[in-house]
Amino acid sequence: MNNKISVGIIGGGIAGLVFANFLKNDKKFHITIFEKNKYLNVSASGIQLSNNATRILNKIKFNEIDKNLFSKIEQVRIYDYQNKNIISKLSLINFSSNFDYLCLDRNVLVNFLTNQITENVNLFHRKAVQVKNNHIVFTDGYAQKFDFIIVADGMFSKIRNQIYKSDSLQKKRITAYKGLLHSNQIENSSNVELFLGNNKHFVFYPINKKGDFSFTGIFNLQPVYSDLDYHYPGNVTDLLKIAGDAHEDIQQIISSAKNIYQWPIYTHSKIEFGKKNIFIIGDSSHAMVPFHAQGAAQSIEDAYCLAKLFQNNIFSAEYFRTKRLSRVSMIISKSNQNLFTYHLSNPFMKIIRNFFIKIICRYSYISNLFFGKIFNYDFKN
Question: Are 32 and 9 in contact (CB under 8 A)?
């Protein structure tokens, strides 16, 4: 083990776990993950994985998980938020016959990733508070030295702030609500349903084949609390008031929901990928508004790309930056555009938007032209 390259990963979320999974069988590395939270008893939460993410995960046999634990999405149906009039339908088969857009409980993905590393990767539930002189320092003062350190502790990363001696995290004037619906009365679906409203949008999708669904509502509202947390409790009554002019189907979804929580949307004003022997990936590097299912997907891409560089003995944070910066910047730009177009309130502008949505969804060539750069990404060294 003394001859191995030691790698310490701060954060056992999706980014850190994916990175570890791609290096777990490479005998030249000794991998250790430090995650401050226990994985047990985590509240269920829906997650969408687009094709650029699933193609990477399938390299570590994610496509072999129980098919009842996820829903494969075939179509995105776009509606008006108030009257549920259909705007258009985007067929994901337009992109390719083996296009895998999956919706599932985030815990299913995390459990898969942790189960895959049990033999070859050390995982400790310890909170890191500092990186200093190649050492990770923990709350009890103990410090452990590594050849390389991966910072993957999420958008609220204090380690990143220490490295760059600044805090680029910015709170958007947006509040997101999320909830789950457990019901066998709703017909199981292979669709994501997207509702576009005035200064808001709502997404509803199945997360398995057991009749469980997840929803996310994003509203142009100042967050009501300031804690840096994803799981601030929400409730049905407050959400129904905020949903306001929602179609009755949306109101019924909210009324039947369990485990509602809310969180403010944060972004980083500057993207950072690390320096010297420290690498930063996922939300720690580039927190963004969540559109096109790219929040988790970009974390997965980061982790995969960095692991491939390590496998090829490329240990340069600057080189990693050159490989990821333009890609991530493009995704952030498109996400910000979506936030604007989804939340239009001017009736004339909405008519123009809906016209272009219909054109994009109707013709596969235009769909691929518009979304292909996002979903058909393939990393090259």
Answer: yes
What amino acid occupies position 165? Answer: K
How many structural domains are present in the chain? 1
Percent of residues in the chain assigned helix, strand, coil, to nearest 5: 35, 30, 35
Amino acid type, 120: N
Return the HEC string of 206-249.
ECCCCCEEEEEEEECCCCCCCCCCCCEECCHHHHHHHHCCCCHH
Report the alpha-carbon distance of residue 22 to residue 9 in Å, rounded.
13
Instruction: Please tell me the distance from the alpha carbon of residue 34 to that of residue 150, in angstroms, as a whole number.
Output: 10
Q: Which residue has the higher pLDDT, 334 or 290?
A: 334
Say how far apart CA 151 and CA 275 lie, in whole Å: 11
Helix 317-342 vs helix 364-375: crossing angle, to nearest 10:
140
Which pTM value belongs to this model? Answer: 0.94
Residues 59-84: tens digit of each pLDDT: 999 999 999 999 999 999 999 999 99
Q: The CATH number of the domain where 90 resides is what?
A: 3.50.50.60
> Contact, 290 vs 333, CB < 8 A?
no
List Cα–Cα distances, 109 to 11, 79, 120, 281, 292, in angstroms: 15, 29, 19, 18, 18
Residue 30 belongs to a domain: yes
HEC profile of 271-306: CCCEECCEEECCHHHHCCCCCCCHHHHHHHHHHHHH
- Contact predicate 68/59, CB 8 Å: no
Residue 357, CB-side half-sphere exposure with 13 Å CA sphere:
22
Higher per-residue confidence, 8 vs 2: 8
Strand locations in 281-372, DSSP E?
A: none
Its sign, for the CA torsion 323, 324, 325, 326, is positive
- Across the chain, mean pLDDT equals 90
pLDDT tens figures, 101-133: 999 999 999 999 999 997 889 999 999 999 999
Residues 130, 6: Cα–Cα separation, whole Å: 18
Q: Which domain holds residue 280?
A: 5-169+268-375
